[in-house]
């Protein structure tokens, strides 16, 4: 199920599944995963799919955008402000979730952007699955999956020219050793040693992008044709940004025009054909009518 939804990352998915087997069998109450890889290759998407496949609902995922926790005091948004400070009578984000359940997928997105105070706060969570909030109440996440994503080391390596003859731009795969060094320099040994699994994600190639385009087009009422897939590929895919732009491009370029057609035909069709004329979208045509 995961491999169907996460394209081009079979090794990463396999490593995640092996980690979850230990939790499912009762050997580990908590699973912590650190996803490292280029942007737009499926790190956040895998976390979303896990919440639905492993925990049974998309709403079981909590996403923490770590760019919002770059200042040392902002960790209080998670567990509440200390007594005597503004907001000390309010519950933090994780305190509210812990009251509902101990079973979540908690995604700390781009963890390298958070302050080291937040990293230190998470040591207890990674140790035994608990945190203490601002009121001294123990918050339990002992049945949860804790996921961190990071692009650490990529901006200083990937895309740079290699030293020596030819000087080809370095790929993510070429830079793996340097990225690993950057990872170890960015995070403290105490933090790294508490992680159960570090999972590397591959760059996506054109074949992977084609599969992703087809998956996205299956979600809308259009006939999937080779010219249409080629059109989206040429407009939305880049090795640098992976698949991130594909979903956005389909929404802004195809869905907007499809919405116009559905409204003008009063929704009489269940499927529409999208012709490509001289490399651009033609007039949409309804090809399957409602019964």
What does this structure look like?
The chain is of the alpha/beta class and 291 residues long. It has eleven helices and eleven strands. The strands form four sheets. A five-stranded parallel β-sheet has the order 2-3-6-1-7, with helices on one face. Strands 4-5 form a two-stranded antiparallel ribbon. It has a two-stranded antiparallel sheet with strand order 8-11. Strand 9 and strand 10 (280-281) form a beta hairpin. Helix 9 packs across helix 10. The longest helix has 21 residues, at 244-264.
Q: Layout of SSEs?
A:
Blueprint lengths: L1 H4 L4 H15 L6 E6 L6 H11 L7 E5 L10 H4 L13 H8 L4 E5 L6 H13 L1 E3 L5 E3 L4 E6 L25 H11 L2 H4 L4 E4 L5 H12 L8 H11 L7 H21 L4 E5 L2 E2 L2 E2 L3 E5 L2
Parallel strand pairs: 1-6, 1-7, 2-3, 3-6
Antiparallel strand pairs: 4-5, 8-11, 9-10
Helix pairs in contact: 9-10, 10-11
The count of helical stretches stands at: 11
Beta content: 15-25%
Q: Sketch the major β-sheet.
A: 5 strands, parallel
Average predicted confidence as pLDDT: 85
Radius of gyration, whole Å: 22 Å
Instruction: Give the neighbour order of strands across the main sheet.
Output: 2-3-6-1-7
SSE arrangement, N to C: HHEHEHHEHEEEHHEHHHEEEE
Oligomer: single chain
Percent of residues in helices comes to 25-40%
What are the segments in which pLDDT stays under 50 over at least 5 consecutive residues?
157-166
Query: How far apart are the first and last residues' alpha carbons, in Å?
Result: 32 Å
Structural class: alpha/beta
Shape: elongated
**How many strand units?**
11
């Amino acid at each position: 199920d995961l491999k169907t939804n996460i394209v081009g990352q079979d090794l990463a998915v396999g490593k995640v599944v092996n980690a979850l087997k230990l939790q499912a069998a009762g050997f580990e109450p908590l699973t912590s995963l650190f996803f490292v890889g280029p942007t737009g290759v499926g790190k956040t998407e895998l976390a979303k799919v896990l919440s639905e496949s492993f925990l049974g609902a998309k709403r079981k995922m909590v996403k923490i955008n770590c760019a919002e926790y770059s200042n040392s005091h902002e960790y209080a948004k998670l567990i509440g402000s200390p007594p005597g400070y503004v907001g000390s009578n309010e519950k933090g984000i994780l305190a509210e979730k812990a009251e509902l359940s101990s079973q979540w997928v908690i995604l700390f997105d781009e963890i390298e952007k958070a302050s080291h105070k937040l990293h230190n706060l998470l040591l207890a969570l990674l140790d035994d699955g608990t945190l203490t909030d601002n009121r001294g109440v123990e918050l339990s996440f002992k049945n949860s999956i804790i996921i961190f994503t990071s692009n650490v080391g990529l901006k200083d390596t990937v895309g740079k020219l290699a030293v020596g003859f030819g000087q080809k731009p370095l790929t993510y795969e070429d830079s793996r050793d340097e990225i690993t060094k950057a990872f170890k320099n960015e995070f403290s040994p105490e933090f790294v040693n508490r992680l159960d699994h570090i999972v590397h994600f591959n760059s996506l190639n054109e074949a992977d992008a084609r599969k992703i385009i087809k998956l996205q087009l299956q979600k809308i009422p259009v006939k999937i044709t080779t010219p249409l897939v080629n059109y989206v590929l040429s407009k939305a895919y880049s090795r640098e940004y992976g698949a991130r732009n594909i979903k956005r491009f389909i929404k802004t370029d195809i869905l907007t025009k499809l919405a116009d057609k559905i409204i003008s035909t009063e929704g009489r069709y269940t499927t529409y054909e999208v012709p490509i004329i001289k490399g651009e979208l033609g007039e949409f045509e309804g090809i399957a009518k409602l019964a």
